[in-house]
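Researcher: I'd like a structural prediction for the single chain below. Treat it as a standalone chain; there are no partners to consider.
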Amino acid sequence: MESIENILNLQGKILSEINRDKKSLDVQDYEFKIYSQWGEDGIIQFLISKLPIKKRVFVEFGVENYQEANTRFLLQNNNWTGLIIDKDQENINSIVNSGVYWRHSLTAVSKLITKDNINDIILRAGISGDVGILSIDVDGNDYWIFEAIECINPSIVIAEYNSLFGKNLKISVPYDKNFIRAEKHYSGLYYGASIAALTELANKKGYCLVGSNTAGCNLFFVKDKIVGDIKTFSPSETYEISKFRQSRDNKGNLSYLSHEDGLKLIGDMEVINLENSQRVKIKNLNV
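Model: Treating it as a single chain, here is the predicted structure.
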């Protein structure tokens, strides 16, 4: 396992060096995957090379067993300090008993995150104020938890969006502190918030949108004051229909639905229109 990690980390270093010669200021041109789910590792390496990061500290939640995460390459390649959170204690035990835990300054916490406890969880880990990266992926209350975070001031925010919700509407699933994606709808397609909703919230917090990954699931925001010459976008300019087909049937098997069929399947589910705080069924929206 250690030899595989060494090879992966070496590949990441090589790809990072290759990216240094590129002149583009569009984050999608820097994608590569080492431990991230898609191309986030490369985008993160590009951003931290361009931005004046005050503290090399990250907070990431929804990491499962940390085998696939946005910050793991950052931890191992750049030796950042971090806090990771996952609701499953078995996942946290696996991380704590792994080599990556004792080799690096990493804190792993098992907790079901809510908008009411997220600040306390971060503060109890000894983290506050300026940090380098906040990565949000809880497959449900992402918008509401992002809105609630006040104890840290990240230079970069990475947030998952649901591409089924389109590129123009500002919508999110209603807040439920016990939100479990698979229990809300068997398909697993009903979760999170739209790209426009997350971008408006980020703007209010002092961030601009610098892009999404080409897979169509993660957004990258940078503090307005430090973005410099990195290219910025409106939600509609960087929106991507997700390429992956993660829908499940009512027996839990992958059903590989298209974007359009997936949207129809969750049509009777309700979302919050953040423009007027009204609940509306997805099928009644012009998504």
